[in-house]
Design brief:
Blueprint (H helix, E strand, L loop, with lengths): L4 E7 L2 E7 L3 H19 L2 H5 L2 H85 L1
Antiparallel strand pairs: 1-2
Length: 137
């Protein structure tokens, strides 16, 4: 098991110690994202007029909204990947089946060529016999 990391981050000017199994870089990236969101919303005049609790709730709701939309898109993409995997499996299966059919057809072609050669030999034998019979009369 990976050791827990304790990482100090600054969120909205306040210092926090985050503890988790993720890397320090990841924890810094998360706090940077939150700081970016706070800065983005602070540009909105309506956000500035809200009290602290409303601002906090607005930020939380918007981050949750982004999360659920991103999760939905990730699930859709995962389903697409699953569909593509199934299609690829089907295509590979068809390819194997066609290769087997092709091998069988090649064997049949060889068998028929051999049979045709045997018939050609038989025709030559029969023609030779007929010529020999015609010459003997």
């Amino acid at each position: 098991m990976t050791a827990k990391n304790n990482t100090e981050v600054i969120i909205d000017g306040n210092k926090y110690t985050l503890s988790g199994y993720e890397s320090e870089e990841y924890l810094q990236k998360v706090s940077s994202y939150i700081n970016g969101k706070i800065a983005e919303y602070r540009k909105d005049p309506a956000y500035k007029k809200m009290n602290f609790d409303a601002q906090k709730a607005m930020l939380e709701l918007n981050i949750a909204d982004e999360y659920f939309k991103t999760k939905k898109r990730a699930d859709e993409l995962e389903a697409e990947v699953g569909d593509k995997d199934r299609q690829l499996y089907d295509i590979k299966h068809e390819l194997v089946t066609e290769r087997l059919n092709n091998q069988e057809n090649e064997k049949e072609i060889i068998r028929l060529k051999n049979e045709a050669n045997e018939y050609q030999k038989e025709i030559i034998r029969l023609e030779t016999r007929m010529t020999d019979m015609d010459n003997s009369y």
